Structure prediction request, 300 residues.
Amino acid sequence: HPYIVKKGAAGVPLEGLRLLPQDDPLRIGGHRMAGALVVPAHGPAGELQSLQLIPADGPKMNLAGAPMAGASHMVGTGDGPLYVCEGIGAAWACWQATGARAVVCFGWGNVARVAAQLRQREQAARLVLVPDSGKEAEAAAIARELGAAVAAMPEGWPANSDVGDLAQREGGDVLAALLEAARPPEAQPPRYRLLTGADLRGLPPQPWRVRGVLPAEGLAALYGPSASGKSFLALDLAAAIADGRDWFAHRVHAAPVVYVALEGEAGFRQRVAAWEHAHGCDLPAGLHLVLQPFKLTDSD
Prediction:
């Protein structure tokens, strides 16, 4: 088949693969599948779950109506390491370089589920994730959870390059060395740092935007009863920061300001006019206003 030739996969195990007849009328996603290489996708219990079809001159296509979730295809046999790959080309390359089993997951989105199934089935096996370029961080997260190793592509390869590309360009011995050197990823650093009193004494002093009132980093709240003048006070504070002038005798470090009016935007123009009248000048150029509807909880 042209795809096998293209991948340089001479001598790889082809058990279970089939060819669709040249006169078969099957189309998937508008692509003609006649003559395609057919790769079986087996479920966790070994049952035939779906098919992947690889035409000679088109993209890989999965059989419509037969989900791939959790399905895989094994290249080779034995009891040695298990190399977990996205596609069959990468799996063939791993087998050629090592003679060990390689598992096809039919796409990156299936790797975590298939790897978990393999770990449950062969708890003592050396499980090695073999991600395409750009998937290293995700592979490391999966490997930490399953106690697996990661064989990452060398730096400098384009995104989505795989070990099949590496073997064709650099040779099978280079790939064999890469797979042999696979190691479990380092443990992630703890999310929270536990500090002692001595640690706190060694921290740098609090940086202020408005000294003693508003920190330069973090969150602050201005609160009070309704109609107590909070909006006017906030506008005056924002203008002082944008202008870099002292605010009620508190030193200010100037910075650009964006004031987002989430309510009462209709009357905000009058507030600005009142501020400019009281101060005898225009609002500072470094103060910008957002008056149209804005939702802090909107993920977009």
Remarks:
- The first strand starts at residue 18 and ends at 19.
- Residues 230-243 form the longest helix (14 residues).
